[in-house]
Design brief:
The structure is a homodimer of 138-residue chains. Chain A has 138 residues and is mostly helical. The first copy, chain A, has one domain: Arc Repressor Mutant, subunit A. In chain A, 49% of the residues lie in helices and 6% in strands. The first copy, chain A, contains six helices and two strands. Chain A has helices at 6-20, 28-35, 39-51, 76-84, 106-123, 127-130, and strands spanning 55-58, 64-67. Chain A has a two-stranded antiparallel ribbon with strand order 1-2. The longest helix of chain A has 18 residues, at 106-123. The A-B interface holds A 1-6, 9, 12-13, 16, 34-37, 80, 84-85, 87-92, 97-101, 104-107, 110-111, 114, 117-118, 121-122, 125, 129-132 and B 1-6, 9, 12-13, 16-17, 34-37, 80, 84-85, 87-92, 97-101, 104-107, 110-111, 114, 117-118, 121-122, 125, 129-132. The complex binds FE2/S2 (inorganic) cluster (FES) (2 copies). Residues 92, 94, 99, 101-102, 105, 107-108 of chain B line the site of one FE2/S2 (inorganic) cluster. The first copy, chain A, binds a DNA duplex (30 and 30 nucleotides) through residues 1-2, 5-7, 27-29, 38-41, 43-44, 46-47, 50-51, 57-65.
DNA sequence: ACAAAATGATACAATTATAGTATCATATTA
DNA sequence: TAATATGATACTATAATTGTATCATTTTGT
């Protein structure tokens, strides 16, 4: 029953780390060392973030990853969507034949409401909002 | 990324159904037929609800399950706890060595806040609050 | 040219959670 | 004592999560 899976979490932490460094470009290995995450797993995550346009990558010596978007513009929901698909708290949506309440289901309505609020709040969390004060904005 | 798993969902719907009927005692088979859920799965769920004190059961002809607690006192979080364990949106709690931010992690704080709010809202959803108007209170 | 340093692509594997099944035992009622 | 119901419990299947591992490609510096 996790809302945030580990690859999302790793991704967020990696983005935070990159955003905080003075250098723009950070190599995967540096991230692995600094954040102590499984190497191959993080590499895959970084590749995905690159493909999705949140990171730019460069090969060869001195290469690595840099933010492609400012830290203030990357939201938690962005990252979640990439690694976990569309956000949905419940799958309470049964075939009509399955459920006598479906046409006017209060449970569904209530859950949907909560879902909306949660998403709104997650959307308000950006990478820069997670960084310690003083580092923000970058 | 589901907040509510199917056994929780089935349990809630079963509780709703039982609460709505005029008879107090409803057999497992009647629930299976009416709600069109997998028989064995629902039986297991009903047994669990019984063990946890939300249903009373009686064997033999005319037996079945009845609410042990009034519908207004069974919350969604109650049911979730039974079938999904303690509610936790994120496992963002790494070993100290893993994460430079852990001592003062804004992400953790923000997630925890959201978590609290979600739990509060889920707690406000009771079985009777899900039933159609007019059936309430039973 | 060539080696070193990096990422890109991709296939594979392990673990865990979810979802569901099946069987036999036990109690109750008619 | 047969029928009806739940109790206990072990088993299986599927899917999601969490990784690993390998080889290819690009870039840089000597
Ligand atoms: S759609 Fe069936 S109870 Fe909500
Ligand atoms: S505990 Fe590490 S970023 Fe939150």
């Amino acid at each position: 029953m996790k809302l945030i899976t580990r690859n999302t979490d790793y991704a967020v932490r990696a983005l935070c780390y990159i955003a905080e460094q003075k250098q723009e470009v950070i190599s995967g290995d540096q991230l692995v060392k600094s954040l102590e995450m499984p190497r191959s797993f993080l590499r895959k995550i970084l590749q995905t973030l690159n493909k999705e346009g949140f990171l730019n990558s460069s090969k060869g010596k001195g290469g690595g990853f840099a933010l492609a978007v400012s830290a203030g513009e990357i939201t938690l929901t962005d990252v979640m969507k990439i690694f976990q698909g569309p956000i949905r708290l419940s799958e309470h949506k049964f075939k009509k034949s399955d459920c006598p309440y479906i046409s006017d289901c209060l449970l569904k309505k209530k859950i949907d409401e909560i879902e909306k609020e949660v998403i709104a709040k997650l959307k308000a969390i950006t990478i820069s909002s997670i960084l310690k004060k003083g580092d923000k904005g970058k």
